[in-house]
From TrEMBL:
GO molecular function, one term: oxidoreductase activity
Keywords from the named record: Oxidoreductase
Ranges where the Alcohol dehydrogenase-like N-terminal domain occurs: 24-131
Protein name (Swiss-Prot/TrEMBL): Zinc-binding alcohol dehydrogenase family protein
Residues of the Alcohol dehydrogenase-like C-terminal domain: 170-293
This protein's record includes keyword Oxidoreductase: yes
A Pfam match: ADH_N
CDD domains given in the database record: Zn_ADH7
InterPro entries from the UniProt entry: ADH-like_C (IPR013149), ADH-like_N (IPR013154), GroES-like_sf (IPR011032), NAD(P)-bd_dom_sf (IPR036291), Zn_alcohol_dh (IPR050129)
């Protein structure tokens, strides 16, 4: 079967690999339909991912059709599904607390083990989610949107909270959309005019972080009190450190993105505000279901979020281009089933 392999940073290879074979007990064979290209995939291509060994087949935003299954349950051969790509041990302290998204021994498809930029993949049957009511391209967007849904749930913020989302990329937009679904008052900040225009088109208030004093702008927007909830989805350590100053007294900061750098902040300012600092990693089954329901209900503009498409065969060229040229790019999706 055909697969896209990142052999080392900046080197993508479209090559033949052995088919996975029949699924063992508790596993299923999925014929891939679509795969979303994530910021994680660009980081792998660029050699910036902290948890990766090469070579690697990327791809963790997955939709497809069951080709074979060796597990009891309601999902059958021929059914359209999406895949929860977080493979958890079910035994560690996090898993025992119902947090498999931060399992001690987690393996993420496309990161810790080979992913879905290929024609077929074996996955645990328990990680399959029926794509009922979704198109297969919509199903391939559920995972990245679940990151945002999970971050909003982690914030514990309620209706009416003034919320700032820093970073108007796919993850940040997902956070903003689910914060709005949670009836929060949402402002999006970025330094990219094109992405800010997209956020404004979705009905969000925006702040251009490249102009003037951000602290002064935020003071003007919030009657000098700051935002109740601040999400940073930039993947930029300087932005993450600056964001502490935007949080109101008694407020919450949620770090959605992950960087390799250390993050430092003023302890007196942190304590003075009695802030909560929350990390948000991956997503849970509940978040996936929340996203599926929200797409079905027409609350997520998937047709506007998916701005770029390619085939598996053309993906080595296109990923290399999109890693550098992001004008107009929100979410790119590989049509694997249509790659022949």
């Amino acid at each position: 079967m055909k697969a896209l392999v990142c052999r080392k940073p900046s080197e993508l290879s479209f090559e033949d690999r052995p088919a996975p074979g029949s699924p063992g007990p508790g596993w299923a064979l999925v014929s891939i339909s679509h795969v979303g290209i994530c910021g994680t995939d660009y980081h792998i291509f660029e050699g910036k991912h902290p948890y990766l060994a090469y070579p690697r087949v990327m791809g963790h935003e997955i939709s497809g059709t069951i080709a074979a299954i060796n597990a009891p349950g309601d999902i059958a051969v021929g059914e359209q599904v999406l895949v929860n790509p977080y493979l958890a041990c079910a035994k560690c302290v996090a898993c025992r607390q119902g947090k498999p998204n931060c399992c001690v021994a987690i393996e993420v498809l496309g990161v810790h083990r080979d992913g879905a930029m290929t024609e077929q993949i074996l996955v645990p049957a328990q990680n399959l989610i029926p794509a009922t009511g979704l198109s297969l391209i919509e199903a391939a967007t559920v995972e990245f949107l679940a990151i945002g849904a999970h971050a909003v749930r982690r914030s514990m913020a309620g209706p009416g909270n003034r919320t700032l989302v820093i970073g108007a990329g796919p993850i940040g937009l997902g956070v903003a959309l689910f914060a709005r679904i949670a009836r929060q008052s949402v402002t999006v900040m970025d330094v990219d005019a094109e992405r800010l225009a997209f956020a404004a088109k979705q009905g969000f208030l925006v702040i251009d972080g490249s102009k003037g004093s951000v602290v002064e702008t935020i003071a003007e927007r919030t009657a000098k009190s700051g935002f109740d909830v601040v999400f940073d989805a930039t993947g930029n350590s300087r932005s993450m450190q600056s964001a502490f100053a935007y949080v109101a007294h008694g407020g919450v900061m949620v770090m959605v993105s992950v960087v390799q750098d250390d993050i430092t902040f003023s302890d007196p300012e942190f304590h003075k505000r009695e802030m909560m600092l929350i990390g948000s990693r991956n997503a849970t089954q509940a978040d996936f279901q929340h996203v599926i329901t929200s797409i079905r209900d027409g609350k997520i503009p998937v047709d506007q979020l998916v701005t770029h498409r390619t085939t598996l065969r053309n993906s080595p060229r296109d990923i290399a281009i999109w890693a550098q040229q992001k004008s107009g790019l929100i979410k790119a999706v590989i049509d694997v089933a249509g790659s022949a």
